[in-house]
Amino acid sequence: LVIVVKVGKILIAALLTMVWSTVAIAGDVTVNASVDKTEVFENENVRFTIEIVGSASDIPDITLPNLPGFQNYSSGTSQNFSFINGKTQTSKSFNFILIPTRTGKLTIPRMKITIDGKVYATPQFDITVSPGASSSSSARQQSQGSRRQQQSSSRDIKPDDLFISTSVNKDTVYVNQQVTLSFKFYQAEGVDVLQNPDFKPPQKTGFWVEDLPPRSASYKTYKNRRYHVTEIKTALFPTTSGPATIGSAELTLSVREPQIRRNDPFSFFNNNFFGFQNQGRTVPLKSEPITIVALPLPTVGKPADFSGAVGRYNINADVDKTSVEANEPITLKVRISGIGNIKSIAAPPVPELADFRSYQSGDSENITKANYLVGGAKTFEYVFIPKRAGSYVLPAINYSFFDPGAKAYKTVSTQPIQVQVAPAPDRYASQMQNLESNNIDLVAKDIRYLKPDLGRINSTTGTLVALRPIYLALYLIPLIGYFVVVGQKKKQERLQSDQSYRRFKQAKKMATRRLSQAEKLMHSGDAAGFYSEINRSIIEYFGDRFNLPSFGLTADKIREFSDGKLDEGLTIRLLDLLRQCDFGRFAPGGAEPDQMKQLWQDAANLIVEMEKSR
Amino acid sequence: VRKWLVLLLLLWPLILHAGLEEDFHQASSLYDQGEFKESAALLQSIVDKGYSSADLYYNLGCAYFKAGQLGYAIANFRRAERLAPDDEDIKINLEFAKLFVVDKIDTGPPKFFPDKVQNALGKVHPNHYFWISLIAFALVFLFLSLKRLGFLRRTANTLAVVLLVLSLASAGAMVWVLKVNYLVKEGVIVANQTEVLSGPGSDFELQFDAHEGLTFKVLDQKNDYYLGLFANKLKGWVKSSAVTEI
Q1: Which of these, A267, A487, B41, B52, is most buried using a 10 Å CB contact count?
Q2: Do B144 and A436 touch (CB under 8 A)?
Q3: ipTM here
């Protein structure tokens, strides 16, 4: 038997997983296949399970090809995830119901399954199908003592053997008011369901959904038949006004043909406890959709703080302590309890208090579903931190809701709570003592405020002048200034006290003065005066230089005195000049202007040269 | 054209200053609005451009403090204090911020130098000591010169001696303040928590855990680690990425 197992879908999935498996951990995958029995009667069925276990990143859907000799149905998949040592372990089971169509030896062939690029094969199973659902019980583990087998031929399932229905308790409600949806599964007595049915709950778009366990089971008589009724309830809260539809519920089951002998007083036992003739049949069931109308909440009388809660609620408030120190937190718990969609309750507005810092610190809820009505309590926690000592009142907290029973808005309030706040111990002050500065009275609870202006940027205060040599050099200025002053003062004092020093220092000054006087005389034509002045300037200069009384200084005395003290050449020139002066002074009319000029020049030069030689 | 260029060059610092001033005030209004992180970022951008002033560092410290960055707050208050050691606001905020440092190191017995004198001396910027010393020194010689020139014959010497003592004392105070407060490199821990190790590397042993805002003197630097001297004479190496230098 050559059977191609790989369906296109699997191939594509396999290709995709090949790509992915380079990244994902290509883990160990095991493929197990099993059948629940290998010997069946003609009208029994075989359950065939393929289980894939491992860390496969993607497990393809598996569909069975047509198997010769069988009709097959998928009866669903089940999947488990587990994390072991950080690895994802996946286990997925594909369940199939195989119904033999003929007797004899039938084969479930080997099948290839590609997972993450690897090919796995399932073993081959041989199934022996015996004709008729008769006496042989070899295939059965449980061998019942007395059997009242019925050689019944197949009977069809009638619509009233199995059916489902959905209903609601109200079809017109307010927004956010509870509608209870009830799903009922009617199973006539004598109709057995072979395995867990596949239930597809109705679509509930536009509703907040809350399951209402437990599911109930009871027996009911309907149209003169006893039914086993399973009921599942769900609470629905319409989220917006207007019509909203609850979709169809679907239930797919596999049933055994009813084996009912109505007149048999033991039929109950027979069918429910001892029946074993199985003829699996898949029966799909479907219910009708239901439309609900959600009314908008009235606008008249709606409180300002209304936040959308519908139901019946109470409010109460509680603090953990009523006497604290400043800066010590107080926890206020506000509990809203009652009937309604507790999960959608918003925090009640808490007034801002000037003497407190406050914030919401969390909430918790506790849902109850007694009598299939959703309710419970939601607790909101607020932390209040008193800023300073005193006696304060935490005011009442209001909560508004719409009561659909009374069709009116209602507001509930908490009691105001008194709190006593004692002054805080000065923690900062005690810490300050350990710090370097204890001259600051620090009682502040915050840093000081900003400076208004940028101030001098990049100012010299930013650099340390002491580290710059140029600034250190400034210290020299007063020192230099002082020595200048001292030097000047000393010079002045000597000029005053020491005559010879003074004459010596001022010799040139005096001589120059005389020479300029002589120049004037020369220009005014006073030749006698000119020569006399030149003569005096030279003689007095000489006297000042060597601290001699200029009076009575003759050429002889000059020659005598200058010996060894003045350069010989200069002495000769000096004496020559004196002679010329005498000559000019006493020579009548011998005053040539050129001659006088030459003489003056010589005298000036001589004094300059004598200055140089000192 | 050249005249205008010269004028622009002369006015450029003023224009630049006006721009900085604008950013500075914008940072203040961000601070008022509770946008502390943004305020700090704006002020930090001014600092990063290379400008500094005591008030700038002070406001930056305030913004960092409010933004919850205690380490940077303390570092900037300390920088402000170095520029304006006599500013009381800076001192108070620095001490206040230090209260939030997790590590309270016992500084041991009181030091030889009485704390009060130390504090008082530290309140004056070393540059001010420098100018006081220089001016006193100049006055010494001014009075000596005046005496030479025949003025203040009786008092000049006394005045000169007093001024000389003042000058030397001021210079001494300057050297001391420089040594204690300015010529030491300081580090502030800015990471939430960091390890203080016995050597410059993660292989060395853990001495203790230091927390944000703890200040230490930097003694050495090696392999991305600072050798810090903490208040209780404890030494240890801290990863430089966890530290800002003052």
Answers
A1: B52
A2: no
A3: 0.72
